Amino acid sequence: MDIENYIELVFNDYTLRTITLGTAILGAVTGMLGSFAVLRKQSLLGDAISHAALPGIAIAFLITGAKDTNTLLLGALVSGLVGTFWIRGIITKTHLKSDTALGLILSLFFGFGMLLLTFIQKQPNANQAGLDKYLFGQAATLVESDVWLMAVITGLCLCVLLLFWKEFKILLFDKNYAITLGFNTKTIDVLITSFIVLAIVLGLQTVGVVLMSAMLLAPAAAARQWTNSLATMVFLAALFGAFSGVFGTAISASQNNLSTGPVIVLVAAAFVFVSFIFSPTRGLLFKQIRYLKNRRDLALHKTLAFMYDIAVNHQNKSHPHEIRILNNFQGFSRGTLKSLEDKNYVNIQGTTWSLTEKGYDIALNLYNQQNKTNE
Amino acid sequence: MNSAQIEIQLIACLVAVACAIPGTFLVLRKMAMISDAISHSILPGVVIGFFITQNLNSPLLILLAAVTGIITVILVEYIQKTGLVKEDTAIGLVFPVLFSIGVIMIAKNANDVHLDIDAVLLGELAFAPFDRLFISGVDVGPKSLWVIGSILLLTILLLLAFFKELKLSTFDKSLAASLGFSPVIIHYGLMSVASVTTVGAFDAVGAILVVALMIAPAAAAYLLTTDLKQMLFLSILFGMLSAISGYWLAHFLDASIAGSITTMLGILFLLVYLFAPNKGLVAVMFREKQQRTEVSLLTFLLHLKNHDEQSERHVKHLNEHINWQKIRSTTVLELASRNNMIEIEENIVSLTSKGDKFTTQAIDYIMTNEDAQIEDMKKEFFLFRG
Predict the structure, then answer these.
(1) What digits encode the pLDDT tens for the residues B97-114?
(2) E strands along chain B, which residues?
(3) What domains can you pick out in chain B, each with its CATH number?
(4) Which ranges of chain A would DSSP assign to H, the alpha helix?
(5) Rounded to 5 degrees, what angle do the CA atoms B63, B68, B69 make?
(6) Is the model's pLDDT at A330 over the cut of 60?
(7) A57-90 as b/e, with b when 16 or more CB fall inside 10 Å?
(8) Please, which residues bridge with residue A322 across strands?
(9) Contact status of A41 with chain B (Cβ, < 8 Å)
(10) Is residue B117 within 8 angstroms of chain A, CB to CB?
C-alpha cells in the first residue's frame, strides 16, 4: 500500500477516517494541556490520573449496567478527579513527598479497579465483555460520536485556554506574583488540573490507561526543546501530538497485529528523540558542536597569550621566535598555529614565528573584554 | 484451608516482605515513582527472555528483565543530566516507550506465543501453586515460592550487610560520600534489588501490585514513625497483613487476588492517613485548629496589653472590635482564663501578672524571631499541651 492509496483511503474509509481524526484531535488536546503539566512539573500526574480512572469505569458500569462510552468516561472523570485531589491532600497535609503520593494513588486505585473488573467478569451479565479495552486502549472502537465528543471538548479547552491565558501563564511562571496581584490561584489551579484530567480521560478509550501519560508528556517535552515562548510551545505541542496520532494510525493500519496506542506513543517518542538531538538551541548535537568550538577558541587564545608573553619582553614586537619554544605549551598545535596565521595574527617563516601588529593588539586586549567579536 | 491456599498466602506474604524492604528506602529517597517505571519497562526484557527460553520462570528471563529495569534507571538519569527536561518528565517518557516496545513485540508474535500482557501486568496468584518445581523428580513446592524466596533471602542478606551504608546514604548523601561510601554504588545496588524484586514478583502478583506493595506499606509506616528500623518493621507487617486479608477478600468476592491485596493496602493506608497519631489528617487538622486558637489568644493578649482604657477591654466590645465570631471569642477567653492569664471582673478583662509576662515574652519573640525563645515559652506557659 503506497502513500497516495493510503491518503485516499483515509478520506473514503469510515473506520480509518474516524480513527485518524480521533487520534489527531486527541494528540492535539493532550499536547496542548500536556505543556502545562510538563512546565508545572506535574509530568507524572498524568500517569497517576489515568490509572486512577480505572475504578471509575468499573463503578460506572456496575451502577448503570450499560457499556455506553460517555457514562463510563464520566465515571473515569470522577474517579480521576478524586485521585487527583487525594494526591494533593497527601502532599499538603502530610510529610509524604509527591512521588510517594503519586505512586500510592496510582497503584492503589488501579489495583482496586482490577478487583472490580475481575469481580464484574464473574457476574452473569453478557454485557461485561470489552471493559478491559480501557487498559490498553483500542482505537478501532472509536465511532463518529466519540470523535465529535473529543472535538467539542478540545474546542472547550481551547476557549478556556484563550480566555484565561494570562492567568494560566502567570500561575505557571510566578505563582507568588499571581497571588499578590489578587488572582485566585486556587481556582485557576483547579481549573487547569481538571482540564488535564479531562484530556486524560478522553484518551483512555484510544490509548489506554497505561500509555496515556506518554501522550501527555511526549509532545510537550518535544515542543519545549524548540522554543522558550509558552504560546509557541503549546502550539507546537498540539501539532506534534496531532502528527503523532496521524502517523501512528497510519503505521499501525499498514501492518497486521499492531495496536494503535503503542505505535502512537513510539511515534511521539521519535519526535522527542529528534527534538532532543537536533533542536538548534538546546539540542545535544548543537550543544556538542558549540562545546568543541569553544574549546578550540580557548586553545587559540591560550597560544596567543603565550606568544604575547614572549614577545612583550622584546623591543621589537615582531621579533621572530623559534616555533620549538612553543612546544612545552599544551595549547599549541599545528592547527592552532595555522589558524592564527590565517587570521593574520602571526607570521610564519620557516621554523620561526613572529606576532603581527594586529596579533599583538588582540593579545593585549584578550582579557579586557574589548574585542567582543567571537573568534 | 487446603495446601494450595496456604501456599498462595505464603507466596503473597513473601512477596510483601520482599517488596517492603526496598520500598521503604525508595519512599525515603523520594524515588517511589521509579518503581512504577521499572515495573512497566521490564516488559520488553520479559518478552525477549520469553522468546529465548519459552519459560516464564527461567532465571535468564529474570536476569534480562532486571537488566531492562536498570537500563530504565540509567536512561532516566541520562536524560535528566542533559538538562533538557526535569526528572519526572524523564521518567514519564522512558517507561511508556519501553512498555510500548514490549506490547508491540507481544502483539506481533501473538499467534505463536503464550504470553499475555494482562498476565504480566496483573499476574494470577491463584495459579501459582500449580506451577511446581521438581528436583530430581521430587515435588518441592511451587516454583514462584522458590523464586521469590531466594530473592527475599538475597534482599535480607544485602540489607543486613549494608544497613548502615544504606541508612547513611539515604539521609545524608554528602556525608556518605565524604566518608568514602559511594552513593552511586548504593543507588544502583538498591535499584538492582528493586528491579530483581519486581521481576521475581510480577509473575505471581503482577507489576502493578508490586508497585503498591513497595509504596503503600512504606508510606503508611512513614506516617507512624520516624525511626528507620521501626519503619522497616512496620512496613513488613503492613505488607503481610494486607497480603493475607487481601487473599481472603478475593476468596469471598471471587475476584483477582492481586486486586484485593491492593485494595486492602488502600484501606490500610486510608486508615493510617486519617488516624495516624501525629501525622494523620485528623491529628493535623486538630493541631491546626489549636494553633489558630493560640494565635488568636496571642492577638487578644496583645490587644489587652496595648489598651488600658476600660471601653477597649469590655468582653462584648472585644467581640466586635477584633472581629471574631462569638464561639471563637468564647474559646479564646476560656483558654486564657484557664491558663490564668486574664481576670474578668464585671465583664472587664485585664491581664494577670502571668499573662503580662507571657505577652512581653511573646512580643520579644515576634521582634527577634528566634526559635529558641518560643521553645522556652512552650515549656513555661503550656496552653493546650500537658
Answers:
(1) 998 898 888 877 765 555
(2) 132-135, 138-142, 342-345, 348-351
(3) 3-279 (1.10.3470.10), 282-380 (1.10.10)
(4) 3-12, 14-39, 45-52, 54-64, 69-93, 98-121, 133-136, 144-163, 165-173, 175-180, 185-207, 212-224, 230-253, 260-278, 284-311, 334-342, 357-364
(5) 95
(6) no
(7) bbbbbbeeeeeebebbbbbbbbbbbbbbebbbeb
(8) A352
(9) yes
(10) yes
Q: Name the strand (E) or helix (H) holding B209.
A: helix B207-224
Within 13 Å and on the Cβ side, how many CA atoms surround B369? 1
Judging contacts by C-beta atoms under 8 Å, the chain A residues touching residue B120 are none
Interface check B235 vs A, CB under 8 A: no
User: Across the interface, do A103 and B32 touch by the CB < 8 Å criterion?
Assistant: yes
B37 phi/psi in degrees, rounded to 5:
-60, -45
Interface list for B 128-157 with A (CB within 8 A): none
Residue A225 contacts B where some CB pair is shorter than 8 Å: yes
Residue B236 pLDDT > 80: yes
pLDDT digits (tens, 9 = 90+) for B166-212: 898 888 888 888 888 888 888 888 888 888 888 888 777 777 788 89
B221 touches chain A (CB under 8 A): no
Nearest Cβ partner for A213 among B86, B92, B212: B92
Q: Hey, are the CB atoms on A43 and B91 less than 8 Å from each other?
A: yes
Q: Give the separation between CA B199 and CA B193, rounded to whole angstroms.
A: 10
Which residues on chain A are in Cβ contact (under 8 Å) with B82?
Answer: 276, 284
Which of A95, A105, A107 to probe the B interface (max B CBs under 10 A)? A107
CA A85-A91-A96 angle, 5° bins: 135
Q: Is residue A346 within a helix (H) or strand (E), and if so which, with residue range?
A: strand A346-349
Write down all domains in chain A, each with its CATH number in brackets: 3-279 (1.10.3470.10), 285-364 (1.10.10)
Choose the closest CB to A114 out of B36, B211, B259. B259
Q: Which chain B residue lies closest to A118 (C-alpha atoms)? A: B255
B27–chain A Cβ distance below 8 A for any pair: yes
Pairing of strands A346-349, A352-355: antiparallel
Contact partners, residue B164, CB within 8 Å, separation at least 6: none
Decide: B184 and B49 in contact? Cβ < 8 Å. no
pLDDT at B352: 78
pTM score over 0.90:
no
Strand, helix or coil for residue B278: coil
Cβ atoms B215, B93 nearer than 8 A: no
B201 touches B9 (CB < 8 A): no
Which of B7, B3, B1, B5 lies closest to B144, judged by CA? B7
Q: Which helix (H) or strand (E) holds A349?
A: strand A346-349
